[in-house]
Amino acid sequence: MELKPVAPFEPIRTEALPVGPDWITQVKWDGVRILTYYNGKDTRLINRKGNERSKQYPEFMDVPSYCRADSVILDGEMIALAGGRPSFHEVMRRDSLRREQEIRFAVKQIPATHMIFDVLYYNGNWVIDRTLAERQELLQDIVVPSGQIQLVPSYSDGERLFAVMKERGWEGVVSKRLDSTYALGGKDGRWQKLKLGYDLQAVIGGVTYREGVMNALLLGLYDEHGQFVYIGHTGSGKLNQEAWRSLANQITALAVKDRTFHNVPQRIKGAVWVQPLLTVKVQFMEWTPGGTMRHPVLQGMADIPPESCTVTQSM
Q1: CA-closest candidate to residue 178, choices 214, 141, 137, 219
Q2: In sequence order, what are the residues at sequence separation of 6 or more whose Cβ sits closer than 8 angstroms to the Cβ of residue 53?
Q3: Most buried residue, 8, 72, 165, 311, by most Cβ within 10 Å?
Q4: Angle of the 100-109 helix axis to the 88-95 helix axis, nearest 10
């Protein structure tokens, strides 16, 4: 039997954590959402946009080695660590690989961990109509944790967990009602996320240099009219020197004469315009009245088409 990919349940953003005995809170991992499909014979790893990622993470293809099920669909986040904390840049280095030789090398050089937090299908039956509490119990029974496979812990004190995340500078938390069923393709208040900042996937439309070295990316989004609009600039952020230099080399080949943005960027002196082909993930505190990001920090490259980077995107 073939298990067809489904759209995962998504949390809505909140500014205040829900409290009470009906809620549990989990860490929001800075990784890639991956659903694992095992029909008893074949395994597929699919991201939240429905794209196959089985080749990128070969170490997770042997489902019977970590899950006691004849067939199953597991929901979770694929993460990679840098300096003891989840790094979007590191996991995207794994997620963006396509060549088998590079992937085999990366399995050891960039180890991934699958943080599993839900189960949708088990032994031939959908379990999405069961409560979260029941699905959590099922996960405890069937998943065998290891160094690479972990069940996401749940906490009753969400505010305390968020305080720890804030202290560590991690992404944030997700609170979930214990009585919530799993809504395929849904997004509602039974799951709520509280983040330290806003996430955005944007397109590089230009760069600036200081003493011949690239020092900032000029970023943009496509508005409802298809116009490429400048939203701010950011430095190297969480990219290491090697990754920043590699990005600079890619950008050199994409330089164009005319301004790529519909509007005029604030940071225009000495700017070099770039074909809007490369996408990145950036985190920022809030939007300014002028429509630019306040305190943006580059998280890593984003493996999505530029046209997906719109002003209406919801992360």
Answers
A1: 137
A2: 32, 34, 45, 46, 47, 78, 95
A3: 72
A4: 150
